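User: tokens in, sequence out, please.
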């Protein structure tokens, strides 16, 4: 397991870190869990990841749709948000097993809401918003389970 921790000073730093993670982690067909409270920067990090592949459209959290797919020139990205999942078995109704089996990078916000259904991730990212003295700061921790 490989672990790294970063301090992000603002939204631009979070986007740039998303871009950098694609290169450093060599993302291609991984399951990536994005953990953090509301407003911690999960969707902003996803925007950076998508920007690294040239996507310049809007990136929104799929809180109500559960899934936002992106068909890019170099890869396919499935962006999930399980914030509104009350029972992990709800994921079976959207065909989660088939979706996770697809050749794509799977980015999952709020994976804890589906923990009993979801497999172990390849990579876990933990984001935490700053305190009142540094409200724009974010801490980011990356754990790469592929490197054991």
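Assistant: Sequence out:
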């Amino acid at each position: 397991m490989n672990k790294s921790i970063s301090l992000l000073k603002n939204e631009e730093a979070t986007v740039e870190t998303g871009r950098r993670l694609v290169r450093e982690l060599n993302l291609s067909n991984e399951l990536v869990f994005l953990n953090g409270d509301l407003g911690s920067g999960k969707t902003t990090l996803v925007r950076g990841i998508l920007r690294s592949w040239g996507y310049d459209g809007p990136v929104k959290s799929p809180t109500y749709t559960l899934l936002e797919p992106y068909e890019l020139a170099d890869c396919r990205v499935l962006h999930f948000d399980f914030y509104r999942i009350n029972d992990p078995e709800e994921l079976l109704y959207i065909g989660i097993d088939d979706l996770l089996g697809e050749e794509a990078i799977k980015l999952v916000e709020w994976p804890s809401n589906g923990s009993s259904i979801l497999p172990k991730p390849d990579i876990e990212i933990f984001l935490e918003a700053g305190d009142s003295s540094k409200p724009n700061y974010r801490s980011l921790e990356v754990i790469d389970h592929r490197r054991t």
